[in-house]
Amino acid sequence: MIESVPNPDGEGVPVVDPLVAAAPAPVAVAPTRPEALPEDYWDGEAGAPKWDALSEKLTKVQEYEAAEAARREAVPVEANAYKLDLPENVVGIDGKPVRLIADDPATKAAQELAAKHGLTQEQFTDFVAFHAGQLLAGQKAADSAIRAEMTKLGAEAPARIKAVESALKQQLGDKGTALSDSLFTAEAVEALEALIAKLTTPAISAPHQTAAQDLSLAERMYQKG
Fold it and tell me: 79 exposed, middle or buried (CB, 10 Å; 0-12, 13-18, 19+)?
């Protein structure tokens, strides 16, 4: 408080309260960043949010939420609701479009996995088509390799293979099928032809059978009827 007191000359002299005189002047406090606001969106010098950056971020968030809502609308309600149609360009070795078998365990597992992760019908179809394409590519490569091997056997390749299969059946019965299923290369066919020839060709000492040794396995099999 300040009050005037008379001095000896009768004039008032201001008197200052010592408590008031000792009080510090108020200091302006700069605004601080709210904890919920990332540093990238705070202008420290201005002591205010970066409104342009915040506006841009908010727009992106709204666009994402709208897209996610639309995506969820496209998710089938149940696993078995996923359609099994594949694109027409997914074709087998015969050039015909392939299809998924609804009752196949692998198909059901794929549907359940898609439902678990909330895939849309389009996403499910794309992933299944990709997987089918990989399997078909492997089949086509194997088929091409077998065809190349059969070319080595010449034009009579089917007859030679059939003769080997028949001979194995005669010699080993049903167990011969295990060997027949291994006829993937020309060398395998030729090796079995050589083995069967030794097992089925009579001894050289038999004069009336000597001519048969000059016949191919297929020719000998056909002669037997």
Answer: middle
Transcribe 68-118 into DSSP letters: HHHHHHTS-SSGGGS-----TT-B-TTSPBP---TT-HHHHHHHHHHHHTT
Could you tell me which residues are beta bridge partners of residue 91? 97
Judged on CB neighbours under 10 Å (0-12, 13-18, 19+), 217 is buried
Instruction: Provide the token pair at 83.
Output: 């359609």
pTM more than 0.70: no
Q: Which of 223, 225, 222, 224 is nearest to 159 (CA)?
A: 222
CA distance 152 to 196: 20
DSSP sequence for 154-211: -TTHHHHHHHHHHHHHHHHGGGHHHHHTT--SHHHHHHHHHHHHHHHSPPTT-GGGGG
Lookup result for tokens 């009080």: 23
Per-10-residue mean pLDDT, the chain, length 225:
55 58 67 90 90 93 93 90 91 87 93 94 94 90 86 86 84 77 80 81 50 49 43
Residue type at 61? V
CB count, 10 Å around CB of 145?
Answer: 12
Of 35, 116, 38, 29, which Cα lies nearest the Cα of 75? 116
Name 66's Cβ contacts closer than 8 Å, sequence gap at least 6.
none
